[in-house]
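Tutorial handout. Part one gives the primary structure; part two gives the three-dimensional structure as tokens.
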Amino acid sequence: MITQTLEMIQEEPSASYQMIKDEHLALLVITSQTLAGSSIQLSTYQQVVFSDCVFYAVEFQGVTFENCVFENCNFEFSHIRGCKFKNCNFNNCTWKATSTINTIYENCDLDSNLSQLTEVNGNKMTFTFEIQLPIAC
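Part two.
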């Protein structure tokens, strides 16, 4: 398995607006990226690590994240609607003035601030546990 790293190196930090639709990314490490006022729709991300990324006032709609990691990411003023997070981990993320509506969090490790956001607005949190029972012969 090969994982690519995507990193933007700039002398001055800048943000970019993007309309991202029907994007499919897998096996990537994305670091130090900033999206501001952007929209991400109907996209799929599998086994992607987002590290030190800023999603400022980004609208996520109908996006699926599977086996992804978000570490030290900032989601301030963002809106997450009708998305699905499966087997994702969130570590040390910022959620100031963020909303999450009708979104599924399946087998995710949520940081405490995101956990509070998911308790309202039609979000679903599901966890699957494997239990092994002894078989009597």
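Part three, for discussion. The CA atoms of residues 72 and 92 lie 5 Å apart. The chain has one helix and 16 strands.
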